[in-house]
Amino acid sequence: MKVNYSEIGLKIGLECHQQLATREKLFCGCKPELFKGEPEILFLRRLRPTQSELGQIDPAAYFEFQKGVRILYEANSETSCLVEMDEEPPHELNREALDIALTIALMMNAKPVDEIYVMRKIVIDGSNTTGFQRTCVVAVNGSITVDGKEIPIQHISLEEDAARKMGEEGLVIRYRIDRLGIPLVEVTTGPVISTPEEAERVALAIGRILRATRRVKRGIGTIRQDLNISIKDGALIEIKGVQELELISKVVEYEVQRQLNLLKIRDELRRRGLREEELKEDFVDVTPVFKGTGCRILQRAINEGKPILAVRLPKFNGLLGFELIPGLRLGSEMSDRAKFWGRVGGILHTDELKSYGVSDGEIVELRRYIGASPEDAVVLVADRIENAIDALKAVIERAREALKGVPEETRAANPDGTTRYMRPRPGAARMYPETDIPPIKITGDYLERLRANLPEHPEEKVKRLIRNYGINEKLARQLIDSEYDELFETIVRETGVTSTVVAATLTETFKALKREGVNVDALSEEQITEVFRLIGLGKTSKEAIPEIVRWLVAHEGAKPEDAVRELGLTMIPEDELEPLIDGYLSRNRGLIAERGLGALGALMGMVMKDLRGRVNPEVVNRILRKKLAEIVKH
Amino acid sequence: MNFHQVAGVLRGMSERLPGYKGLALKVLLDVGAEIGDLMRITKGSVVFEGILIPRSEYSDDRHIVIKNRSGYNVGIEITPETRVERIGAEMKPTFIPPPPPEQKPGLPRVTILSTGGTIASRVDYRTGAVRPVISASDLYSIVPELADIAVIDAEILFSVFSEDLTPKHWSAMAEAVARHIVGGAQGVVIAHGTDTMGYSAAALSFALQSLPVPVILVGAQKSEDRPSSDAAMNLIGAVLAASKAPFAEVAVAMHETPSDESVVLHRGTKVRKCHTSRRDAFKTINAKPLARVMNNEIIMLTDDYKPRNPERKITLKANFDERAALIKFYPGMNPKIIDWHVSEGYRGIVLEGTGLGHVRRECFPAIRRAIESGVIVGMTSQCIWGRVNMNVYSNGRDLLAMGVIPLGDMLAETALVKMMWCLAQSSDPEEVKRLLLTNVADEFSSRSVETIEAPKTIVSS
Ligand SMILES: [Zn+2]
Questions:
Q1: Confidence band, pLDDT 50/70/90 cuts, at residue B242
Q2: Which residues of chain A have a CB within 8 Å of the CB of B282?
Q3: Which pLDDT score is estimated for B130?
Q4: Fewer CB within 10 Å: N-end or C-end of chain A?
Q5: Between chain A and chain B, how many beta carbons pairs sit less than 8 Å apart?
């Protein structure tokens, strides 16, 4: 679907969350690491929804609580202490994390606040043992420039990461608290991004600045993007947890498509003349219709003694099966809601009943039984009666929203770029001060110290690399993204190998090797530098690099000299090379007689094919050219 | 206790701009600002907008704190280029309790007396200040489950942090409990700060004799406004015990483990706070806990208890003589500490000795002088667990010979409370000694038994 984004008023704001590479967690001395294997410590909690400042209780949270949802926390003693267990007040804010967050803020031209207040942001899904996330704004009003456009950075915050969800069994949700308390920096842009591609570029630019500090964690799950997306007439949708940069534009495209299609459904419902009052919570037990059904799902429910409850959605026929984005229909949105509010396995509806083995006769009978006209849709839930009722109430609610357009909600990103319903969008952030942590004053001296040690801004570094090393912009950017930029400068300085060769190796060659499955990251900086040192000394050639790297990765702790020796990649000295080349010439007299000087290319190919990595092609070329010229002359 | 900011904000509550002083106060007064007003503070190119928040009284006079639109508080320093404007009055949020749940007929009547502390307080979301709230309707709205257990009658006795409570407060508590029991309460719950709850529990155990119904002290380690608070579960456990436990004793109800699975009821004379912050900070020492509340059921953990009997007439002995001290012995302790107490008119001293009940020989003359001048000296152990035995070593035998009274396996804190109580019951030293050694409220146990394991968190699927 081709979309004119400015016409539909697309507005995107980004929230980048990046884990910091500190020695300790944000509010205690635990290692900021995850653990594998079985937990040593288990404890069970319930989180009781508390009232907001206006005396309101978050309905979703209260609902979960009333259902008796309990949270089983897993921990081990190395990565968690009583602070993460919410059995001990937080310690003081980790100063190392604050240094990094403020460094990032200064790099984004943000203005640090004069006094930092740690706040509690209510989060009641169990991901925080306290029921709130500790967070503080460290700076405001920053900006970065992306492709000439100024992107405002509203604020930069320092906060604790949440626990990891490990599973859900019935009413027990399992979380592991190793991740809880790892310092995160949150960078929030203004909602000024206007295309999916721009969102991706902005995220990339922010990521570059974060990594320029060299003090952020790397690897999957260490950076997460939340997207706030809205279009004209649509709704502000918060999409949480996009882990891959490359997915951002896709998530935006899908979300726009989803909202546009929901608007189409709204228009169609209006055209059909649906009024909100027609959507009633009249639930009918239709179990008798399906006695002896061929539908496995329904049959199993009947065998388990669960009733089949149905509700009529007037004028919805055909719309539940309408695809919003690949794999997501209005029916699936209703199903997500039913699962959330009713804790049921899912719903069935008339647009798809046949594919679940329900016969035409049963569908006719169902419609008759519930009084549904052909214009209506019918939704079924087979579960315990209380759950089924909650589920169908949620379906009716979602149907009412369909009549209005796009419901505001928080969605979670799937690995393919589509999204799923997560929870209703919380109202204004519910925050109150963390009274266990005193406010922190940010002094001018402290900021001066940080300013004096700011890492080079990635954009300036690009310019400097081009200027000082004569490499092109593409290579310079690739170097920065590869994070070998510092190593690159060291290698060029210490080995004398041409900068373009070093840059291309560290970026393109390494990327190609990674693609073939070679774990280049396992190489130490010393090993990489040594490889180039050998090239610089003429002991091996740049053509030998891929082979040396493969060998080094396969032989942990080995030295590049070992690789060169073992692989037989030692350079052939010129005095030994000459007789070898003489051999090629005498074996190919016919060719030379036929083509004269034009045989150079073919001969070069033969030599290099046999001796690649052990000879310098320029040297071979020089010797060949000289000897060939002599032969032709005679 | 919470960070000093809380106390500071609390103390400044009556002022119009709590916590602000000097320059900041002047600037705010100049623009006519009040807490909760919408402010705009401009500083160079940066504009902060948000509502004015009170400030800790211990902080400096150069910063103004506002809560910005996304809910974050930030402090802004006043410099020559800072412009402060009041741009409007924000709606002033107040705590609006939801409607109380429907009261079920035929439930037992339970009184909840509030004395202060974490369990009876909540945070003002705007300021972070902790303030006491406990009326019956507040309680029902915060913990609606209570309406299914009992008909609650609530009374605020006082609102003090538990470290500020004195023996006079114990007397007031005891009198209030007796009044409510005589008035027909089928159980009494006392909401109490945790720091000295063990002392109050012991005091009530001695002051309230021949109880007809249970008296349950309850606290919380995390304030009620936190989603993870232990307050609601402890309170539910306490009210459940007050309304239907088979015993008629003073007990403390708190979490048994870090899990929200069980509340344990500790006998008032045998309980001690043993951790600064954990939910399961309270432990029964040298005995089995009385009972456990799990899945809304009360499970007795001992057969040895005084049964509930609503016909029984309560006897109130609510006086305490504060001229008693608890002195912890430590290596090198100066014996003059003991002399000082004698000269100040103390009538009783509870020593917290080492091991089986010892102090250094250097202290002997001072102890002898104390006893000769009529001061009653008792011995407990700083080991916390175990009983004193002063016959094993000569040090102990010498102290016994001087007239030091070994107090068995009684907790040192309980022994102090009991000393105060005994001294108030009689002016005759022999009678005080007799009472001190009489087992009044199961403060002594004759047998030392292995403690009971708390239930392990089990993964149920
Ligand atoms: Zn920790």
A1: very high
A2: none
A3: 60
A4: C
A5: 157
Domain end (from B276, B292, B316) = B316
* B261 and B339 together in one domain: no
* Cβ(A396)–Cβ(A279) below 8 Å: yes
In 3-state terms, what secondary structure has residue A430?
coil
**Residue A35, pLDDT above cutoff 70:** yes
Could you tell me if B107 and B151 are in contact, meaning their C-beta atoms sit under 8 angstroms apart?
yes
Cα–ligand 1 centroid distance for A455 (angstroms)? 30
Answer yes or no: do A66 and A210 share one domain. yes
Please give the mean pLDDT across all residues of chain B. 89
Band of pLDDT at residue B203, cut at 50, 70 and 90: very high
Is A219 inside any structural domain? yes
Look at residue B454 and tell me if it is in a domain.
Answer: no
Give the closest of B76, B96, B258 to A114, CB-based. B76
- Give the H or E element holding residue B233: helix B231-244
Ligand 1 centroid from CA A215, angstroms: 20
> What ipTM, to 2 d.p.?
0.90
Rounded average pLDDT over A239-246: 91
Instruction: Please indicate, yes or no, if residue B207 is contained in any of the structural domains.
Output: yes
- Is the residue at A411 inside a domain? no
How many Å lie between the centroid of ligand 1 and the Cα of residue B181?
46
Distance in angstroms (rounded) separating the CA atoms of residues B383 and B355: 6
Q: Do B144 and B176 belong to one domain?
A: yes
Indicate if B53 and B146 belong to the same structural domain: no
Q: Of how many residues is chain B composed?
A: 461
B118 shares a domain with B61? no
Provide the domain count of chain B: 3
Same domain, B198 and B130: yes
Distance A206 CA to ligand 1 centre (A): 29
Q: What is the pLDDT of residues B291-324, one digit of tens each?
A: 999 999 999 999 999 999 999 999 999 999 999 9
Same domain, A86 and A149: yes
Which one is catalytic: B138, B195, B280, B321?
B195
Specify whether B383 is located in the same domain as B427. Answer: yes
> Could you report the per-residue pLDDT of A129-163, keeping only the tens digit for each?
999 999 999 999 999 999 999 999 999 999 999 99
Q: Is the pLDDT of residue B13 over 50?
A: no
Is residue B418 annotated as part of the catalytic site, yes or no? no
Separation CA A103–CA A211 (nearest Å): 11
Q: Do A43 and B457 touch (CB under 8 A)?
A: yes
For residues B281 and B214, membership in a common domain is answered with yes
Shortest Cα distance, chain B CAs vs residue A50, angstroms: 6
Report CB contact under 8 Å: A82, B277.
yes
Largest CA distance in chain B: 82
| pLDDT value at residue A589 | 87
Q: Could you give the number of structural domains in chain A?
A: 4
Tokens of B376: 């009653």
Domain that holds residue A487: 458-567
Interchain pair B128, A432: CB under 8 A: yes
Residues B264 and B167 in one domain: yes
Residue B331, Cβ neighbours under 10 Å: how many? 6
Distance CA A458, CA A440 (A): 30
B79 tagged catalytic: no
CB contact under 8 A, A131 and B226: yes
CATH number of the domain that B354 lies in?
3.40.50.40
In a domain, B18, yes or no: yes
Reading the block at residue A515, the tokens are 């693609």
What is the residue range of B45's domain?
3-86
* The pLDDT of residue A452 is above 60: yes
Q: Which residue in this structure is represented by tokens 């001018």? A: A444
Q: Is the Cβ–Cβ distance between B153 and B185 less than 8 Å?
A: yes
Instruction: Categorize the per-residue pLDDT at B1 as very low, low, confident or very high, splitting at 50, 70 and 90.
Output: very low
**Distance to chain B for A26, nearest Cα, Å:** 18
What integer is the mean pLDDT of B148-152? 92
- A87 vs B278: CB contact, 8 Å cut-off? yes
| pTM to 2 decimal places | 0.86
Per-residue pLDDT band for B98 (boundaries 50, 70, 90) equals low
Residue B314's CB is within 10 A of a number of other CB atoms, namely: 18
SS3 annotation, A227-240: EEEECCCCCCEEEE
